[in-house]
Amino acid sequence: MLVILDFGSQYSELIARRIRETQVYSEVLSYRTSAEKLRQLNPKGIILSGGPNSVYDEGAPHCDPEIWKLGIPVLGVCYGMQLMVQQLGGTVERAKRAEYGKAAIAIDDPTDLLTNVEDGSTMWMSHGDSAIALPEGFEVLAHTENTPCAAIAHHQKKLYGVQFHPEVVHSQCGLALIRNFVYHICECEPTWTTEAFVEEAVREIRAKVGDKRVLLALSGGVDSSTLAFLLHRAIGDQLTCMFIDQGFMRKYEPEYLVKLFQEQFHICVEYVNARDRFLAQLEGVTDPEEKRKRIGHEFIQVFEEESKRLGPFDYLAQGTLYPDVIESADTNIDPKTGERVAVKIKSHHNVGGLPKDLRFKLVEPLRKLFKDEVRKVGRSIGLPEEIVRRHPFPGPGLAIRILGEVTAERLNILRDADFIVRDEIKRHGFYHDLWQAFAVLLPIRSVGVMGDKRTYAYPIVLRCVSSEDGMTADWSRIPYDLLEVISNRIVNEVKGVNRVVYDITSKPPGTIEWE
Ligand code: XMP
Q: Where in the sequence is the active site (predicted)?
């Protein structure tokens, strides 16, 4: 295992993912993790991430200085390298010229960390400070035009630092450098494979659950579906999946999912029709946060009631993923206090978001995985591509794509429009190029003309975005012809809609969903 100590960089998770791509397990821990804790964990290497601070800022995050004496190889990246230099007695100063973007590195020592890294290759830089005097025993491995110490090493102690970001895709030989650190310097073996994970997870689930019963809230997304497959493989019919139909699903989705799981996968699914209850909760509600809260609350109510009816169950299976458990996920460090600050934009609700105080014990076999790893696991245990590659769908469903009050009539309008969007996007072969493609119904009406008659009806917003992880997104440049087909079909086939508009806002400043 390798450990990444996070100093608040937006790339910390990316480092962890890159290392896992080399089939070595890695974890992100807080920069406050003590040397003693690290000694117990006994990783084969430590990576210090980048971060938004300057090492000489008052209150800037520092790691336990005992870490340098553990005898474990360390790679400092950007802020991590500057911290290594400063804590070991070198000097870091504000650079004469900040360096952002690509820079060509000139290699001074092509061995060790920089084996197979081409001289002159471009690496991604993002720093305002630079190391200007190295601590004793260190030497320069590479420099750039503006940065005399772009890569450094203390060979004997196996301490390394790079000013650039080898983890980002724009860094040409970044992966070669990471592989050198992982395989040659830390001497890790490539044992983190999907097959090994599945084998181990199945063993652990069996050992934990024994002959007890497990309940799982199935949403049909890739996480809960993979979870269902994994548990079913481990404990067969001791697993019960509960599918709560809150009435905000896409057209034909509940029938499709229940049939798929029961008939094709032979996994027991209890279908709960709670449509009326959820709709009643949203009567007269227009505020987006209020909608989200009421839906989340009602979900828990229904879940508790139904689990009593179907139970008793000893365990609840949750699709918690690794980004949910990283202490530092989505947070920033306040340079003054060193505390982490997260700003809440929306109250997310999903089936994994059940409160911990439900009287179940938890089984969370996916908690070590990143989303792309969940997909790989899903695939390897037989989940069909149509589930593995489906677009994300928010827990509160169509209710947060109907602006204003959610009514049965408006749900039908949106459901029909949404069906056309998905149908045409798939038919034109764009489905897998997009992160999401969906319709939003607005609470206003505009004038149109159809068959020589005046219409006064709702507009539909078409939202198609591309994204890597949903954190940032760009609106998709889908062809005009496709826009035209979708618009024509919606206006002609969906009663109550007379206009279609295309959302051309990226995230930020927009969000992907409208509520
Ligand atoms: P936003 O709208 O915040 O969405 O840009 C980012 C991604 O998250 C999805 N999303 C949700 N997923 N429960 C979920 O499981 C939610 O409450 C929720 N809200 C938004 C959204 O579809 C997009 O992929």
A: 78 (nucleophile), 165, 167
